[in-house]
Structure formats: structure tokens, C-alpha cells
Amino acid sequence: MKILGTFIAIAIALTGIVAPAAAADYPTGPIKIVVPYPAGGTADIFARIIGAELSKAFHHPVFVDDRAGAGGNIGSDIVAKAAPNGHTLLLGSSGSNAVNPSLFKQMPYNAWTDLVLVAPVASAINVLVVGAGHKAKSVADLLAMAKAKPDSVTFGSSGNGSVLHLSGVMLANMSGTKMIHVPYKGTPPALLDVLTSRVDFMFANAPSVVSDIKAGKLRALAVSTKYRMKELPDVPTLDESGMKGYDLSSWWAVFAPAKTPPAIVEKLNAAIRKTLNEPAIEARFESMGSKPLIMGAEESQKFFLSELKLWGDLVKASGATVN
């Protein structure tokens, strides 16, 4: 028994020595960033920006592996089941990693226990838009219409359970109104019907609508975050428009398998934060209608767990499900 006790004590002591040593040596080879969406999309772009900077910082190649499918679940599952050594990472999003766990009836992994959020990367404002010829000139006008005739106001989205759908659900819930959701297969067809006022409004990612707003084809009534958008400084926030506390945005973040040593998570988090603090990176993100989202490792995980609950509650309120 004494011998066994000695071995256990040695094992515990070695664990304390090996973990920091492993972090000090990390990385020992190439790093793969899995993107759970098609190549060329926003997540893919962010992954390549972050990957290039990590490659410089760590002196090892970082490559992007696009694994689209099942709304982001295929790529997320690959990383959730990967070796927890920091060499396989995920560039996920609020949609793939905070909405999907409540939206899909069956998930291939446990979002709460199988992934750790290493560091957020960016957030993007969503804009509430109507067609240029729509009679609503403000959020108050739109809500007055919805209250005067329940179920008469319609809003489009890029699909059932999408972040853009749930943004509309939150507006309806907070305003105590009943609105009809019209799902589309992606943002472009939804925007076409908003342009012609076939549907009354929709929430859209800022990069997809800024040019049409500036061209006068769409009217922006509000933005979804508590801060105004630099490119649309005259457009109020929903919080300023009477929806006190309304604050939703799309976000992207780097994840790792849950059992990745904390020291490696901290090292990655520090490198990503340093990248996001670079003025050139901030300017590049702003040109895409987004902004860096910077948090420490512990704060990042708390943020993730709170987002799982926030979006989970909205999915439940929406009634949306995917088999």
C-alpha cells in the first residue's frame, strides 16, 4: 500500500510538472482550424486572419480545414472529438455553437461539456431593415402596426432557428407583440422580399445590407447592439428605440476540445487577444461590418455558457426545431 501511495504521489507531482512544460513547448507542430461552414464565408475569413497571425506567433504552420454540413454540427463534432492537445481548433459561431445545441433534436456531441471557448474573435451587428417604400419610419411605427393588428406584421429570416430569426423573436417578446415569421433559404431571397415590402422587415448581418441602405434601397430602423454602428452613425440602437436591454449580435470564436490543458488554452487566448488588439486587424474587421471581441480565457468560457442559455431560451420561445 505504501508503494502504491508513493506511485500516486509521484504521478500527481509529475502532472503538475508536465502540464506547464507541455504549454511551454506548445505547439510542437502544425495547427488545424476547422471551420464548420463553406469556404469563403465570414467564419472562413476570420479563421484565415487568425490563423496567419498564430502562425507568426508560434512559428508553426496553421491551416484552415472547411468542414461544412448540418448547420455547423459536422465541423464542431470533429473538434469536440479531437485529441485535446491544442493542435485541432474550431472557428465556430453563435449559430453553430450557441443556437444549434437547442435547435437540433439530436446533436453529435455535448456542447456544454465537449468544447471549451478559447477566445472570442469578433461580433457583428445585425440591422433591422424595411424596404425603402415601407410606411414604417421607425421601430415605434413598426410596433404600432403590430399592436394595432396582431399577426399582421411579417418578418423574414435566413431560416428557422437562425440568429436572424431569433433576433425577431426577441423583438416580438420584448415588445409584447405577435408577428409572423417567414423563413427563407438564406439571406439573399429574404432581402429581395424586404426590398419590395412583400415582408415587412428582417434582421440582417450588417455586411449584407450596408450598401443597399446607403443606396436608399433599404431603410435601417435600428441596430441590434447597445452601441451604434460606425458606418451607420444616424441609425439608433433598439435599446435607444424603447427596447431597453435589447442587445444581440452574431459572434465568432475559437474553440478547443474540452480537456485541452488550461495552460495551452491560456497561451492560445493570449496570442489571439494580442492579434485582436492590432490596429490593422481592427480596421480590417470594421471594413467587414464587425469588431474584435476581446476576453480572457476564464471570461470567454463564462460568456459561452451564458450565450448557450440566452439562445436556448430564444429557440424555445420560437418553437423552432431541426430533426
Structure description:
- This protein is of the alpha/beta class and 323 residues long.
- The strands form two sheets. The protein has a six-stranded mixed β-sheet, with helices on both faces.
- The radius of gyration is 22 Å and the shape is globular.
- About 4% of the residues have low confidence.
Q: What labels describe this entry?
A:
323 residues; alpha/beta; five-stranded mixed β-sheet; 11 strands; 45% helix
Indicate the multimeric state: single chain
Q: Which stretches are low in confidence, meaning pLDDT under 50 for 5 or more residues running?
A: 6-19
Share of β-strand residues: 15-25%
Describe the largest sheet.
Answer: 6 strands, mixed
Strand order of the largest sheet: 2-1-3-10-4-11
Can you give the mean pLDDT? 90
Total count of helical runs of at least 4 residues? 11
Give the termini separation: 53 Å
| H/E series | HEHEHEHEEHEHEHEHEEHHEH
Tally of strands: 11
Query: How much helical structure, as a percent, in the residues?
Result: 40-55%
What is the structural class? alpha/beta
Overall body shape: globular
The Rg value, from CA coordinates, equals 22 Å
